[in-house]
Amino acid sequence: xxxxxxxxxxxxxxxxxxxxxxxxxxxxxxxxxxxxxxxxxxxxxxxxxxxxxxxxxxxxxxxxxxxxxxxxxxxxxxxxxxxxxxxxxxxxxxxxxxxxxxxxxxxxxxxxxxxxxxxxxxxxxxxxxxxxxxxxxxxxxxxxxxxxxxxxxxxxxxxxxxxxxxxxxxxxxxxxxxxxxxxxxxxxxxxxxxxxxxxxxxxxxxxxxxxxxxxxxxxxxxxxxxxxxxxxxxxxxxxxxxxxxxxxxxxxxxxxxxxxxxxxxxxxxxxxxxxxxxxxxxxxxxxxxxxxxxxxxxxxxxxxxxxxxxxxxxxxxxxxxxxxxxxxxxxxxxxxxxxxxxxxxxxxxxxxxxxxxxxxxxxxxxxxxxxxxxxxxxxxxxxxxxxxxxxxxxxxxxxxxxxxxxxxxxxxxxxxxxxxxxxxxxxxxxxxxxxxxxxxxxxxxxxxxxxxxxxxxxxxxxxxxxxxxxxxxxxxxxxxxxxxxxxxxxxxxxxxxxxxxxxxxxxxxxxxxxxxxxxxxxxxxxxxxxxxxxxxxxxxxxxxxxxxxxxxxxxxxxxxxxxxxxxxxxxxxxx
Length: 575
Known about the structure:
By secondary structure, the chain is an all-alpha fold. It is 63% helix and 2% strand. A two-stranded antiparallel ribbon has the order 1-2.
């Protein structure tokens, strides 16, 4: 079994291969094992019995280096076996984790998820070397890596696991317009539900709503389609994560938002997560290599440290990636997709701790408010709010209070699918976000990045949060004014209002002005409601308007005492 699996892979191994290589008859085989799966389970169990039971992970790596065929069967091909094989492998890895946690003073202080990440980093690196036929150098490599990881990762000073709602999980129906993409989506869904190895082409074409001939017009085989599905899923994951990372002005904050986006994407797209983080192992080395290529752009997240720490060993970055992927794999298999988002703070800590230290990395991992001066909202999406009426309606409606897709569809009188499409764009553009709680029906609640709040709510916001909201509203107003003035319609109506009046008031007067704006805003909503009723009766075309209210404190400006012909000096900020 070992010889055949190493040569062909478990899936391609036939009973005839086993009897030929072992020199026994088919009858003798069936006297020992009921089928190929049972023989493979016995093989894996026998091989895992030889794994050293030492707390030092280097001993495990020596086993990998000296028994590369056995290690390949256990670390790579065992994922293609049945549930009992995977269960046996998982038990061995859990045992290794327990020994490492209990047998080293530093790892004994780690939370369980960090020990999982630590072992996961070692396993992924060992698996990568086995795939590339480079297992011989593993002992020397791990002699450097193990102390490097222990030095780089002090135990976090605070818990690093999100609490709160579980991410809702729903089916992702194949809805692409192109036949090839529909096939790939169908394969992803079937693999998540049935397992890739048990998924058939008949199941895929039935779910995609295409004919078998259409499948073969695009793909040579199921394995060929799988590699394309990994490409497609990887591209979607990268597209959902990297924009938020690239918008961040500082690397640590970029890591935090990227890790949050990564784990949220995996939690909200369970079939995609299952394909990239679980089924890819069952599909074998070619699938793992394709995933490596598809997700390579995500390396920008941890490689961002190279700008400030150029001497960092490349091995540490490979370990970070392996730790993150293994954490997701274990969380998916043990607890399901909905729980994956809870790992975002730990993922942030894994990337940042070697560079910032435990305290700063933990603070960055748990931080919610954005740093002062950080820009909220993708600039292009800010323009889209002004250019796409439905996106503007969604953004404004969520500014009045949280709502689900179902509620938005009812309030705005548009189909749920259309609301979902535009909401996803706003979410990716960082203008709306999912809340930590669900509505009473269990649906996801969304909120706007800039909403209508009362004075008490405003007092609860930090200065940074108020600055970010003001920055976003300022940019939205700027886009609205530019569009209206640039198109020439701004001054078409004599009733238009564009007023700037400097006022000098005391504290009570400032508060009165604020209350006045609140009343005007409330009356504006009442006017809009009455106008909607009249428009429904008359059928007249609606008039798109912008109701902008601004009232703020100015810095104290110096009196101009220069006199005629003696220009005064501008105040400092304007100089």
